[in-house]
Structure prediction request, 278 residues.
Amino acid sequence: ALGVRGGETARDLAVEAVAAAENAAVERAWVFGQIKALQLKLAYLSDALQRDGVNATCFDCREPVTRKEPEPVVWQESLKKDGDGKRCLLYGDTEDGAVMVAPKGSDKWVTLHELNRVRRDGADGARQVSDLWYGQYAMRYEQLMGRMPLKGVAAAMVLNHPHGVKFLLAGAAGVGLTAFYKPIEAITLRILTSGFVWKRYHIWSQFLYWPLPMKLIVYRQIAVYLWKVLTNVEKQIHTALVDAECDLLEEVHRQAVEDAEGWDDADDDTGGDEGFDE
Prediction:
Protein backbone atom coordinates (compact mmCIF):
# COMPACT_ATOMS: atom_id res chain seq x y z
CA ALA A 1 0.00 0.00 0.00
CA LEU A 2 1.18 3.49 -0.82
CA GLY A 3 1.87 5.67 2.20
CA VAL A 4 0.66 9.24 2.13
CA ARG A 5 0.84 12.06 4.67
CA GLY A 6 3.11 10.52 7.19
CA GLY A 7 2.16 6.89 6.81
CA GLU A 8 -1.61 7.15 6.19
CA THR A 9 -2.88 4.91 3.44
CA ALA A 10 -5.58 5.63 0.89
CA ARG A 11 -7.89 3.30 2.82
CA ASP A 12 -7.49 5.39 5.99
CA LEU A 13 -8.29 8.53 4.05
CA ALA A 14 -11.44 6.92 2.65
CA VAL A 15 -12.58 5.87 6.12
CA GLU A 16 -12.06 9.40 7.40
CA ALA A 17 -14.01 10.84 4.48
CA VAL A 18 -16.93 8.48 5.14
CA ALA A 19 -16.93 9.37 8.86
CA ALA A 20 -16.86 13.09 8.05
CA ALA A 21 -19.78 12.64 5.66
CA GLU A 22 -21.78 10.77 8.34
CA ASN A 23 -21.04 13.47 10.91
CA ALA A 24 -22.13 16.14 8.45
CA ALA A 25 -25.38 14.25 7.79
CA VAL A 26 -26.08 13.97 11.53
CA GLU A 27 -25.37 17.66 12.00
CA ARG A 28 -27.66 18.61 9.11
CA ALA A 29 -30.44 16.44 10.57
CA TRP A 30 -30.04 18.14 13.96
CA VAL A 31 -30.12 21.62 12.38
CA PHE A 32 -33.25 20.75 10.37
CA GLY A 33 -34.88 19.38 13.54
CA GLN A 34 -34.14 22.62 15.39
CA ILE A 35 -35.58 24.64 12.52
CA LYS A 36 -38.79 22.58 12.56
CA ALA A 37 -39.08 22.98 16.34
CA LEU A 38 -38.62 26.74 15.99
CA GLN A 39 -41.26 26.91 13.26
CA LEU A 40 -43.67 24.96 15.48
CA LYS A 41 -43.07 27.33 18.40
CA LEU A 42 -43.63 30.34 16.12
CA ALA A 43 -46.88 28.79 14.88
CA TYR A 44 -48.14 28.35 18.45
CA LEU A 45 -47.09 31.91 19.32
CA SER A 46 -48.78 33.30 16.20
CA ASP A 47 -51.99 31.47 17.05
CA ALA A 48 -51.95 32.82 20.62
CA LEU A 49 -51.32 36.37 19.39
CA GLN A 50 -54.14 36.16 16.87
CA ARG A 51 -56.53 35.05 19.58
CA ASP A 52 -55.57 38.24 21.49
CA GLY A 53 -56.28 40.37 18.44
CA VAL A 54 -52.70 40.82 17.19
CA ASN A 55 -52.00 40.27 13.49
CA ALA A 56 -48.85 38.15 13.83
CA THR A 57 -48.19 38.04 10.07
CA CYS A 58 -47.83 41.82 9.72
CA PHE A 59 -46.59 43.63 12.79
CA ASP A 60 -46.63 46.98 10.98
CA CYS A 61 -50.42 46.74 10.64
CA ARG A 62 -51.25 44.97 13.88
CA GLU A 63 -54.57 45.77 15.45
CA PRO A 64 -54.87 47.00 19.03
CA VAL A 65 -55.42 44.31 21.62
CA THR A 66 -58.95 44.44 22.99
CA ARG A 67 -59.53 42.05 25.85
CA LYS A 68 -63.01 41.69 27.21
CA GLU A 69 -63.10 41.99 30.95
CA PRO A 70 -64.80 39.03 32.63
CA GLU A 71 -68.27 39.87 33.84
CA PRO A 72 -69.13 39.47 37.55
CA VAL A 73 -70.72 36.11 38.14
CA VAL A 74 -74.35 35.78 39.21
CA TRP A 75 -74.95 32.32 40.57
CA GLN A 76 -77.88 30.04 39.90
CA GLU A 77 -78.39 26.93 41.97
CA SER A 78 -80.35 23.72 41.79
CA LEU A 79 -80.60 20.28 43.36
CA LYS A 80 -79.25 17.32 41.41
CA LYS A 81 -82.08 15.09 40.25
CA ASP A 82 -82.03 11.75 38.54
CA GLY A 83 -82.07 12.19 34.77
CA ASP A 84 -81.76 15.99 34.70
CA GLY A 85 -78.46 15.79 32.80
CA LYS A 86 -76.49 17.94 35.21
CA ARG A 87 -72.87 16.85 35.63
CA CYS A 88 -70.23 18.27 37.94
CA LEU A 89 -67.36 19.88 36.03
CA LEU A 90 -64.92 18.64 38.67
CA TYR A 91 -65.99 15.04 39.25
CA GLY A 92 -68.57 14.22 36.59
CA ASP A 93 -71.54 12.31 38.00
CA THR A 94 -72.68 13.24 41.47
CA GLU A 95 -75.25 11.87 43.88
CA ASP A 96 -78.88 12.93 43.73
CA GLY A 97 -79.85 15.75 46.06
CA ALA A 98 -76.49 17.51 45.92
CA VAL A 99 -76.60 21.29 45.65
CA MET A 100 -75.21 22.41 42.29
CA VAL A 101 -74.34 25.93 41.15
CA ALA A 102 -73.46 27.56 37.84
CA PRO A 103 -73.16 31.08 36.49
CA LYS A 104 -76.56 32.39 35.48
CA GLY A 105 -77.26 31.43 31.87
CA SER A 106 -74.63 28.68 31.80
CA ASP A 107 -75.34 24.96 31.58
CA LYS A 108 -72.00 23.99 33.12
CA TRP A 109 -72.63 22.99 36.74
CA VAL A 110 -70.47 22.15 39.71
CA THR A 111 -71.43 20.92 43.16
CA LEU A 112 -71.40 23.66 45.77
CA HIS A 113 -69.45 21.48 48.20
CA GLU A 114 -66.58 20.87 45.76
CA LEU A 115 -66.63 24.43 44.44
CA ASN A 116 -66.05 25.79 47.93
CA ARG A 117 -63.46 23.13 48.77
CA VAL A 118 -61.42 23.84 45.63
CA ARG A 119 -61.57 27.62 45.94
CA ARG A 120 -60.17 27.37 49.48
CA ASP A 121 -57.05 25.69 48.12
CA GLY A 122 -55.06 28.91 47.82
CA ALA A 123 -54.24 30.69 44.58
CA ASP A 124 -54.13 27.46 42.58
CA GLY A 125 -57.65 26.59 43.70
CA ALA A 126 -59.01 30.03 42.80
CA ARG A 127 -57.41 29.75 39.34
CA GLN A 128 -58.85 26.27 38.89
CA VAL A 129 -62.36 27.51 39.68
CA SER A 130 -62.01 30.37 37.21
CA ASP A 131 -60.78 27.97 34.53
CA LEU A 132 -63.91 25.85 34.88
CA TRP A 133 -65.72 28.47 32.82
CA TYR A 134 -62.64 29.49 30.78
CA GLY A 135 -62.19 32.78 32.64
CA GLN A 136 -65.46 34.23 31.33
CA TYR A 137 -66.61 35.29 34.79
CA ALA A 138 -65.09 37.24 37.66
CA MET A 139 -65.54 34.88 40.56
CA ARG A 140 -67.45 36.38 43.50
CA TYR A 141 -68.72 34.39 46.45
CA GLU A 142 -70.60 36.99 48.49
CA GLN A 143 -73.89 35.67 47.12
CA LEU A 144 -73.12 32.15 48.27
CA MET A 145 -71.80 33.20 51.69
CA GLY A 146 -74.61 35.65 52.46
CA ARG A 147 -76.87 33.01 54.00
CA MET A 148 -74.28 31.51 56.33
CA PRO A 149 -75.05 31.31 60.07
CA LEU A 150 -72.79 32.92 62.63
CA LYS A 151 -70.46 29.93 63.01
CA GLY A 152 -70.08 29.78 59.24
CA VAL A 153 -69.20 33.48 59.13
CA ALA A 154 -66.56 32.90 61.83
CA ALA A 155 -65.02 30.01 59.87
CA ALA A 156 -65.04 32.12 56.69
CA MET A 157 -63.26 35.00 58.47
CA VAL A 158 -60.45 32.64 59.44
CA LEU A 159 -60.22 31.03 56.00
CA ASN A 160 -60.38 34.31 54.07
CA HIS A 161 -57.06 35.45 55.55
CA PRO A 162 -53.98 33.65 54.18
CA HIS A 163 -52.57 33.33 57.71
CA GLY A 164 -55.87 33.06 59.52
CA VAL A 165 -55.25 29.55 60.84
CA LYS A 166 -51.82 30.60 62.17
CA PHE A 167 -53.40 33.52 63.99
CA LEU A 168 -56.04 31.17 65.36
CA LEU A 169 -53.38 28.80 66.67
CA ALA A 170 -51.37 31.67 68.17
CA GLY A 171 -54.46 33.08 69.85
CA ALA A 172 -55.47 29.69 71.19
CA ALA A 173 -51.96 29.12 72.54
CA GLY A 174 -51.92 32.56 74.18
CA VAL A 175 -55.32 32.04 75.78
CA GLY A 176 -54.32 28.57 76.96
CA LEU A 177 -51.07 29.79 78.51
CA THR A 178 -52.83 32.69 80.18
CA ALA A 179 -55.64 30.57 81.55
CA PHE A 180 -53.46 27.69 82.74
CA TYR A 181 -50.29 29.60 83.62
CA LYS A 182 -50.31 28.60 87.28
CA PRO A 183 -50.85 24.85 86.72
CA ILE A 184 -48.25 24.81 83.92
CA GLU A 185 -45.73 26.63 86.14
CA ALA A 186 -46.34 24.23 89.02
CA ILE A 187 -46.01 21.14 86.81
CA THR A 188 -42.82 22.49 85.20
CA LEU A 189 -41.19 23.22 88.56
CA ARG A 190 -42.25 19.84 89.88
CA ILE A 191 -40.58 18.09 86.94
CA LEU A 192 -37.38 20.18 87.06
CA THR A 193 -36.91 19.55 90.78
CA SER A 194 -37.94 15.90 90.76
CA GLY A 195 -35.57 13.14 91.81
CA PHE A 196 -36.25 11.32 88.55
CA VAL A 197 -34.51 14.12 86.61
CA TRP A 198 -31.57 14.72 88.94
CA LYS A 199 -30.79 11.03 89.44
CA ARG A 200 -30.05 10.99 85.71
CA TYR A 201 -27.86 14.10 85.78
CA HIS A 202 -24.89 12.13 84.46
CA ILE A 203 -26.86 11.38 81.29
CA TRP A 204 -28.37 14.72 80.25
CA SER A 205 -25.57 16.92 81.66
CA GLN A 206 -23.26 15.71 78.89
CA PHE A 207 -25.19 17.89 76.47
CA LEU A 208 -24.06 20.99 78.40
CA TYR A 209 -20.41 20.31 77.44
CA TRP A 210 -20.98 19.57 73.76
CA PRO A 211 -19.25 21.94 71.30
CA LEU A 212 -21.35 24.82 70.00
CA PRO A 213 -21.69 23.46 66.41
CA MET A 214 -23.12 20.20 67.78
CA LYS A 215 -25.60 22.12 69.93
CA LEU A 216 -26.68 24.22 66.94
CA ILE A 217 -27.32 21.05 64.92
CA VAL A 218 -29.49 19.66 67.72
CA TYR A 219 -31.37 22.96 68.07
CA ARG A 220 -31.97 23.03 64.32
CA GLN A 221 -33.34 19.47 64.27
CA ILE A 222 -35.65 20.28 67.16
CA ALA A 223 -36.86 23.46 65.41
CA VAL A 224 -37.47 21.59 62.13
CA TYR A 225 -39.41 18.87 63.93
CA LEU A 226 -41.57 21.39 65.80
CA TRP A 227 -42.23 23.32 62.59
CA LYS A 228 -43.39 20.15 60.85
CA VAL A 229 -45.70 19.36 63.75
CA LEU A 230 -47.18 22.87 63.70
CA THR A 231 -47.58 22.74 59.91
CA ASN A 232 -49.42 19.43 60.10
CA VAL A 233 -51.68 20.78 62.85
CA GLU A 234 -52.36 23.88 60.76
CA LYS A 235 -53.27 21.76 57.72
CA GLN A 236 -55.60 19.58 59.75
CA ILE A 237 -57.36 22.61 61.25
CA HIS A 238 -57.65 24.22 57.82
CA THR A 239 -59.12 21.04 56.36
CA ALA A 240 -61.57 20.72 59.25
CA LEU A 241 -62.70 24.34 58.86
CA VAL A 242 -63.14 23.95 55.09
CA ASP A 243 -65.18 20.76 55.56
CA ALA A 244 -67.36 22.44 58.17
CA GLU A 245 -67.88 25.47 55.93
CA CYS A 246 -68.78 23.26 52.95
CA ASP A 247 -71.31 21.29 55.02
CA LEU A 248 -72.90 24.50 56.31
CA LEU A 249 -73.05 25.99 52.81
CA GLU A 250 -74.69 22.90 51.39
CA GLU A 251 -77.17 22.71 54.28
CA VAL A 252 -78.39 26.31 54.08
CA HIS A 253 -78.53 26.36 50.28
CA ARG A 254 -80.31 23.01 50.07
CA GLN A 255 -83.01 24.38 52.34
CA ALA A 256 -83.23 27.56 50.24
CA VAL A 257 -83.47 25.63 46.97
CA GLU A 258 -86.09 23.25 48.37
CA ASP A 259 -88.18 26.18 49.55
CA ALA A 260 -87.82 27.94 46.19
CA GLU A 261 -88.66 24.83 44.17
CA GLY A 262 -91.61 24.08 46.42
CA TRP A 263 -92.87 27.62 45.80
CA ASP A 264 -92.32 27.11 42.06
CA ASP A 265 -94.20 23.83 42.15
CA ALA A 266 -97.10 25.56 43.82
CA ASP A 267 -97.12 28.03 40.90
CA ASP A 268 -96.85 25.14 38.40
CA ASP A 269 -93.40 26.29 37.35
CA THR A 270 -91.14 23.38 36.54
CA GLY A 271 -87.95 25.28 35.83
CA GLY A 272 -86.22 23.86 38.92
CA ASP A 273 -83.34 26.38 38.92
CA GLU A 274 -83.01 29.37 41.16
CA GLY A 275 -81.05 32.44 40.17
CA PHE A 276 -80.55 34.83 43.03
CA ASP A 277 -79.12 38.30 43.12
CA GLU A 278 -77.16 40.00 45.79
